[in-house]
User: Fold this.
Amino acid sequence: MPTIYIIIAVFVLQIYQIDGNVLSSEETIAGSQSKQLSRRKGLTFIKWGHLVPYGIDLVGCRDWTNPNGFNCDPYNGDTDCNEQRTVLCAKTDNSPRPPYLVLGNGAAMPAAFYVGWTLGHISTTLPVAGSSFRNRAAVDAYCAQYFGTGWRVATFHDGKFIRNMNGTTYAGESWTTNASRMEIGGWSYYTFGNVRNDVRSWVHITDQPANCWNN
Ligand SMILES: *[C@@H]1O[C@H](CO)[C@@H](O)[C@H](O)[C@H]1NC(C)=O
Ligand SMILES: *[C@@H]1O[C@H](CO)[C@@H](O)[C@H](O)[C@H]1NC(C)=O
Assistant:
């Protein structure tokens, strides 16, 4: 008799374990499916360099010189909105372009397009989930709360360039007097600032569904 009880007990325990496994794996599947369904992605930038003489950072979406680099995506977003990232904030004050060099050959656009000037400054917040912002105005307000009036979220197209700008050509006063020649750049740009380089930052892009928030 005791042997039978033990066998029954083991049998019941096995069923319980099977049930338990089925339940927990179903929960896992359901959990990951609902996560995938709500998986929205946002665009991020990272700092590539800092030029001490001018106090400027070079920040951008993708480091084209590194074939194994992070594959940023300004069309669909590249980072899960539930991830915590710093917000890249910006404030423009019409600062003229410092005489940094425009290097490289460019790509679809001339080299200057990819190293435009923001006419101002950047800074980063502490990491925050992109999904915590309902719309762009909320991200702008977050930047203003951190750094003061006039600060807003940095955007993909904050860099401005003048064709043939390079070194002192279209820098300082000649940048300002030729402001009417400014064109909008993209992918990366120079700006006053010295932000951290150990984490990617949320940035905003207009006209593309690549933000964690509504436009
Ligand atoms: C900018 O000037 C530097 C230094 O003279 C030069 O090496 C570089 O090729 C120039 N850039 C462009 C796009 O012409
Ligand atoms: C561009 O700037 C230079 C230097 O200030 C100036 O001599 C020139 O007239 C400007 N060009 C235009 C089209 O404003």
